[in-house]
Specification:
Order of helices and strands: HHHEEHEHEHEEEHEHEHEEHH
Largest sheet: 7 strands, mixed
CATH topology of the largest domain: D-Maltodextrin-Binding Protein, domain 2
Pfam family, one: LysR_substrate
Number of helices: 11
Number of strands: 11
CATH superfamily of the largest domain: Periplasmic binding protein-like II
Radius of gyration: 23 Å
Strand content: 15-25%
Helix content: 25-40%
CATH class of the largest domain: Alpha Beta
Keywords: DNA-binding, Transcription, Transcription regulation
Structural class: alpha/beta
Distance between the termini: 26 Å
Oligomer: single chain
Number of domains: 3
Protein name: LysR family transcriptional regulator
Family: Belongs to the LysR transcriptional regulatory family.
Shape: globular
Organism: Pseudonocardia xishanensis
Length: about 300
């Protein structure tokens, strides 16, 4: 049975067992709680047995979990000890990963988990910034790989789509859309579109401009500071904006606000996240580009 079990799943199981908490284990592993819980359930499905008893106050091992934990610890420890057995272990390499504000925690967690599993000698140093400065940093060689938003068309860069989420229109409650399940952009032509300055995410801004103009939305009300500055304009019914359906700084800014997040009527529009690196550095990055291609599921 253990021949079909992934090593990373055993590592996750050991962490949860030792911490007696999914949240503490997730913090220890550098990943989000939700994907950790899913991976543990994947392991339980592979083994055909529950490994933990989950209740509101605590996490405890089942009989099956207690039977497995010793062997699981031993397997993980043996694998972790392999580099030290080499007569001249290679020095640890590092890469700098840039992440834009709308990048999901799940994407970062999945990427870091893949690196730990497939490239255990690689250190990942993270650098948060908006899309435009991250692209400049990649071109300058200061950042090796960046997770950025929108379609990247610079011939000096290679872009791999690693995540895509649906978009939502954000409008005030009481502005005529209550009770609606979707909205057409043409219905918003009487409102201006409010957004952060285009220079922070030029590819997303260009795509939004093209889409809005196509549907007759001509009003623009840009702000130049933070996502939170969009909130009073939209909540008061003076403008609308667009955000990701599941995550992102813009969506988070509207949490608990009197607004509606409505899908487009055809719901085809997507906010893409691309992993971008310099095309002439592919060889230097080794197996990393191949891992990036595994992320878009």
């Amino acid at each position: 049975m253990l021949g079909v079990v992934e090593l990373r799943h055993l590592r996750y199981f050991v962490a949860v067992a030792e911490e007696a908490s999914f949240s503490r284990a997730a913090e220890r592993l550098g990943m989000a709680t939700s994907p950790l819980s899913r991976r543990v359930r994947d392991l339980e499905a592979e083994l055909g047995a529950a490994l933990f008893t989950r209740d509101y106050h605590r996490i405890t091992l089942t009989d099956a979990g207690r039977a497995l934990i010793g062997e699981a610890r031993a397997i993980v420890a043996q694998v972790d000890a392999l580099p030290a057995l080499l007569p001249e272990a290679s020095p640890r390499r590092s890469v700098t990963l840039g992440t834009a504000p709308e990048v999901s925690p799940d994407l970062r967690a999945r990427f870091l988990a893949l690196v730990r599993e497939e490239l255990p000698g690689l250190d990942v140093r993270q650098r948060p910034a908006s899309t435009a400065p991250l692209l400049r940093a990649v071109l300058a060689g200061d950042v090796d790989v960046a997770f950025v938003h929108g379609r990247v068309e610079d011939p000096a860069l290679t872009a791999v789509v690693v995540e895509a989420q649906p978009l939502r229109v954000v409008v005030a409650r009481g502005s005529g859309f209550d009770g609606r399940e979707s909205v057409r952009l043409a219905e918003l032509a009487h409102l201006p579109y409010t957004f952060l300055k285009a220079s922070s995410a030029p590819f997303v801004a260009h795509a939004a401009e093209t889409m809005l103009s196509r549907h007759g939305v001509t009003g623009r009300l840009p702000v130049h500071t933070t996502h939170a500055d969009l909130v009073p304009l939209v909540s008061a019914g003076q403008a609308f904006t667009i955000c990701g359906a599941r995550y992102g700084a813009t969506r988070k800014a509207f949490a608990d606000e009197p607004v509606l997040l409505l899908p487009f009527e055809d719901d085809r529009e997507r906010l893409e996240t691309n992993a971008v690196f310099r095309a002439d550095r592919r060889a230097r990055l080794g197996r990393l580009p191949g891992l990036l291609e595994q992320l878009h599921t």
